[in-house]
Queue: 3 jobs
Job 1
Amino acid sequence: MKLPKLLQEDQNNLEIQAIKAAINANEDLRMHERYQTILLDLHGVSKKDISKIIGRAARISSFA
């Protein structure tokens, strides 16, 4: 079975794999949101879109 391109890239990216492992091992909602923000950023999602997805202000989801 051939995986979609994004999933193939995920399997080859060690940073993404580490974040996904942290999400699965985590039980804290706040940390889950943080990991989700990092994962979306690694996938190239804009800061504005990340803030909409996680339901937080853009300044909170920014890494700057």
Note: The mean pLDDT is 78.
Job 2
Amino acid sequence: MFFVEQKILPYSKGDVSIIFPGQLHLAQSLKGQVSRWHFCFLDPIALLGKISSSPLWNEASPAGYSRFTNIISPNDAPDITVITEYLMKELGLHSEGTNPPSKAMSGP
């Protein structure tokens, strides 16, 4: 289960969670189940530069975020989940001894 602010959200293998700065959140496995979580913290403005320099990326409460589910499943947005999977694999390779990409961090 994933808790974001006042929302309780189911979470399955392959899902991607998006948490805005300052949003309270907690990931918790169901009793008797073991989960492995990977986290990546991105600064979209530093990452995308002039492509998307909107300050809205760093707002704690973007307009409409309370309606945003925070969980993206492979069925709903396969492109996002596949790109995220590739990103996490790449970060895993970098954390094994090479320099990690700028403004990104991963961990179990």
Note: The CA atoms of residues 31 and 85 lie 26 Å apart.
Job 3
Amino acid sequence: MVRSIRNTLIFGGLGALIVLLAVALAASTGLRRANQVLARSGYSQDQLALAMGLEAGVNTYVARAAMGIPMRARLEEREKIEALLLRYDASIRAERALLTTTGDAVDDADEELATVSELGRLFRAIRRDADTGVATERASLSADLDRFQSLVRRTVAQERAEVTETVGRFDQARRVIRAMAIALPIFTAFVGALGLGLLLARLRRPIARLQSAMAAVSKGHAEPVGDLGFAEFQALAVGFDRMADEIAAQRAALSNVNARLEHDVAARTAELEARNAQLAEIEATRRAFFAQISHELRTPITALQCEAEVALRGRSGDAAMLREALEQIMAQGGVIRRRLADLLAISQAEDGRLVMAQASFDLGQALRESMALADPFARASGSRVEARIDDGECIVRGDAGWMQQALIALLDNAIKFSADAAIRVDLARAAGKAELTIVDNGPGVAEGALERLFERFHQEPAGRARGGSGLGLSVARSVVDHHGGSIAASNRDGGGLRISITLPLAS
């Protein structure tokens, strides 16, 4: 069985090789003849063009001479005609070199060489007669020109006939090659089909079995090929079964990797979308912040200018009016300074440079100093601060300066919402902690927005209406966090906002 398959393939290969050699030999012979015919056709076409160019060039040369154009100006035209004659001669000699045997074609080539020589002689005579310009030479010039044109026309007719002849020979060679190209493959196909049919009749079962196994593997079901009945196919069956097992294992691994990758991509996409949304919100908030801070700084600066103008226009010696104007200037100047301090604190916190000292200080004293600094702004707003501070010291650890800035920010915020009303401040000690509350008389905040009050640049509509930067509460939270405490906001019964701070007391 094995030997029969091998012998069939060997004999089929030998038969195909013999047919291919015959086809190659016939094709080589036909192509060689076709190439020769094509080469002659190319030379004939080139010679036809050269002959026509000679006729046109000589006519132009004679016409320019008749118009009295100097010989020097006609030198380029003469050189061109001489170059055409040389090319014509070289083309004929190259064509004759293709003709390896004697016959009509060789005789025609020799005749063409003689014609080129005669054309050269006539052109020299025409050039001599045209260049002298003597009237007695005109009859000779006309006769030579007529002979030249007659010879060129005859040559053109011969070249056209030669082109037609070579084209006909090429068509004949092409028909022969086409017939060979059709007949030989048909015979080869017949013999091959006969041998292939015999071989396929004996290989149909193992091939069908392999196809079934391949279809199963493509659908993800590994199906063993088993015994195919031929030793040549048995190694293929073993390799195919091994490959199917490897593909199944790789599919399982790839499925797991794809699942993990899809999960990671989904998680990363969600994270990027969240961060993009956050960046968009931050950008919008920053834009709003710069608009608000410019407005808020413009307001106290305008107030400073107005108070200064009032003081300058006032009567000299009116100490009460001057003092009131200076207090207003002082209050507005403190507001500007505190806003700038808030901006510096936020910038340092963003850059990671918010450094706070660690020392013990009295929170009650820091609160009193903060209230004193905020008092001019409170009086300018028609507000008052009512404080209740436990007796004794309330010692905490941290940075007294930063804590004072946070307290001033909270007091300024309360004053802004408590025009013509009182602000209550309470400080007490309880269970090892300091508890500080600041309560204003403003409109309060919606319950859903309490958590966002301490976010950087966040402002509620009421805050934007009264002017603000959205920085004070954020600075306060950063300072309280650095002191290990907590800060929260809640609405007071009856209206107003309560800020509650809890700090650990120093041991």
Note: The mean pLDDT is 76.
